[in-house]
Amino acid sequence: MSVNVVVLENKAAVAKKAADMIEAQVKAKPASVLGFATGSTPEGCYAELAARCKAGKVSFKGVATFNLDEYLGLDGEHDQSYRYFMNDRLFNHIDIRPWNTNVLNGVAADPGFECLAFERKILACGGVDLWLLGIGNNGHIAFNEPGSAPDSRTRIVRLTESTIKANSDGRFFKNPLEVPHYALSAGIGTIREAREIVLLATGDGKADAVKAALKGPMSLDCPASLLQKHDNFTFICDKAAAAKIS
Ligand code: PGA
Q: Ligand 1: distance of its center to the CA of 136 in Å?
């Protein structure tokens, strides 16, 4: 089945469309298992969901969540950790039960076991119904950098220089020396097992990655391209990110 590509006017429209899809999923199945991502791209979607929850339009009381990744060495109190990000941008503003939110623990005593336990918990919850993703400038999904295997599972990974640079441009870390070089990341195999995947891309900086993901061959050089054959995959872009695919 081919990828469902949706091109919208701007970032705000992308956020709204993604929130619509998540709201529909949760309404159809109140005990949904959702996969979430961090980064700048999904922030608008999280703000939408928080507003809709506050307005009583959607409830997350029965929902469980799994996040894609976490920096190795950062605990959840660190303001650049992905646990902190998720609490700050979404979980603290919706009615989800905190114990149903799963973010890998970057300071686990045994990070390898932490990865294994994460995989087992996804299985125990019945698998992920919908996983929201972003895409890196280099085509990465989660911290699966180019070269990651299509069947990779949650594991310790090394970040590329390009990712370290992208995450220290002032939006998150202020300088590259502060960025951890390792992370725990769900694998491409883990992500592909989600029953539905919704990938968001906004801004012209993503145009080359979007082109490689959608128009290029399925290749280890562009991890997002390895999702092309997923049978329920929606790729939502704004016009700037879609500039090279039309
Ligand atoms: P961004 O990151 O949303 O901050 O651009 C996306 C990613 O690296 O996956």
A: 5
